[in-house]
Amino acid sequence: MRDEVISVDPDNLVGAVAKIKVEGYRFVTLSCMQGDENMVVVLYHFDKDLVLKHLRVSVPADRALPSITPVYFAAFLVENEIQDLFGLRFSGLAVDYERTLYLEGDVKVTPFCRYTVAKMNADKAKMLSASADLPGTGGS
Amino acid sequence: MLKTVIPFGPQHPVLPEPLHLKLTVEDEVITEAIPALGFVHRGLEMLANIRDFKQMTQVVERVCGICSMIHAMCYCQGIEAIMGIEVPRRATFLRTIWSELNRMHSHLLWLGLFADSFGFESLFMQLWKIREKVLDLNEATAGNRIIVSVNVIGGVRRDLAPEQISWMLAELAEVEQEINRLGSTLLTDYTVKKRTAGKGVITKDKAFELGLAGPTLRASGVCQDMRMLGYAAFDQLDFEPVVETGGDCYARSKVRFREVLQSIDLIRQALSRIDQSEIRTKVKGRPQGETVCRVEQPRGELFYYIKADGTKNLERLRIRTPTFANIPALLSILPGMWLSDVPVAVLSIDPCISCTER
């Protein structure tokens, strides 16, 4: 890519994003993809005066990334999308759909990623399990 | 005060596509709005792992019917950037012309739907009548009315004959006259202003902070338009983004109305400066590398991230559409509004759900 790409450690992510916001960048989006072995790569894209800046973060698929919604609230939608499609979890998400933005609540697969560990919130799993037992819902 | 939760959509008279909003209301005032998506998600990004990179041009055209031409143009520009392909000058002008026709018919569609959302049926019908002329222009020049399918990697697949250019100029003059005739109604009518002015205000700082895009961003006073990047032939045309400062539903409709007239001007400029050359460069090899490509869709900034590893399939294709960026605006403007204003406010961001969910 012709634009500036900065590699960031997951632990320093929120600080790096906060610095970018102070510099006057507009949040554009996130791009998520499978990396080598059990890794997931997330690119954070920001724009200032039509020039892009990217942060690149690699994280093990079963580890949660800190959400950047405390800095850029608008990121909540794309972080939820990544949770749904790649199974990568975000901690501290401002609005957490618990993997139900696109998917039904009982879906455990990760459609865009072959090795991600998708975990459902324990309370939600219990609630879904209970509703499946209700008469007329197709449960046993 | 008793709180009530009201579902808005996914099937609703003012919504052309399925978007669900869970609205919490006290009396008839919205206190919270939570969007729900997933009704038309097709996983088109993953098709990049199955279809080869040339076939993907036809796939991305079908991300959304209304913005299809610009999706394909963005994708082709991205692949051309990775492969170092130089597109013939005539092809860049042709892409510009079709992309502006795309913007015109999309904005006219929206202006009609917007009029319909506050019950102005005759205005809705008049706007769509004008839109038919733009679709006729598409059909005559590209062979199709909506999904024009003119882009290929390396250029375009259709050309304009000299007699078509003079016919297009005459048609555009008629369209311009008819749009101007409706302008006074759309922009000064008491009913329109009563339902749109001062509703759903997004300040300049808020619009920037929420990462909004397109007319929704420019209506709040932020001068940002991807055409300023100078892709296709925009660097050879006189172009200044349309910006309004009101930040309300009225300002958003005014931006789109002015952009229809601006598109006519841009097409005229392009038709007068287009020269004779090839329309397509032959493509050899396979892409390897990664790039980001951005263009201006009718609804705003369209973002493509493409990663290729030298095989016939792309490693990753990521599409961020403008409506995806504009949905957080709803969470900002709906709280505090009357329930009766929700259809106008929701439509004011011009939501395109098939784009959003891909």
Explain the layout of strands and helices.
The complex is a heterodimer of chains A (140) and B (358).
Chain A: E1 4-7, H1 13-22, E2 26-34, E3 39-48, E4 51-60, E5 65-66, H2 76-86, E6 90-91, H3 122-132
Parallel strand pairs in A: 1-4, 5-6
Antiparallel strand pairs in A: 2-3, 3-4
Chain B: E1 3-8, E2 20-26, E3 29-36, H1 56-61, H2 68-83, H3 89-117, H4 121-142, E4 151-152, E5 155-156, H5 162-188, H6 190-196, H7 204-209, H8 215-218, H9 249-273, E6 288-297, E7 300-309, E8 314-320, H10 322-333, H11 342-348, H12 353-357
Helix pairs in contact in B: 2-3, 3-4, 3-9, 3-11, 4-5, 5-9
Q: What is this entry, summarized?
A:
Chain A has 140 residues and is of the alpha/beta class.
Verbal overview:
The complex is a heterodimer of chains A (140) and B (358). Chain A is built from three helices and six strands, in the order E-H-E-E-E-E-H-E-H. Chain A has 140 residues and is α/β, with parallel strands linked by helices. Chain A has a single domain (4-132), classed as NADH:ubiquinone oxidoreductase Nqo5 subunit (Beta Polymerase, domain 2, 2-Layer Sandwich). Chain A has a four-stranded mixed β-sheet with strand order 1-4-3-2, with helices on one face. In chain A, strands 5-6 form a two-stranded parallel ribbon. Residues 131-140 of chain A have low confidence and may be disordered. Chain B is of the alpha+beta class and 358 residues long. Chain B has a single domain (3-357), classed as Cytochrome-c3 Hydrogenase, chain B, CATH 1.10.645. Chain B contains twelve helices and eight strands. Chain B has a three-stranded antiparallel β-sheet. Chain A binds chain B through residues 1-3, 26-29, 31-33, 43, 45, 50, 52, 54, 72-74, 76-78, 95, 100-103, 111-112, and chain B through 34, 36-38, 41, 43, 45-46, 208-211, 224, 226, 228-229, 290-292, 294, 301, 303, 305, 307, 315-316, 318, 320, 324-325, 327-328, 357.
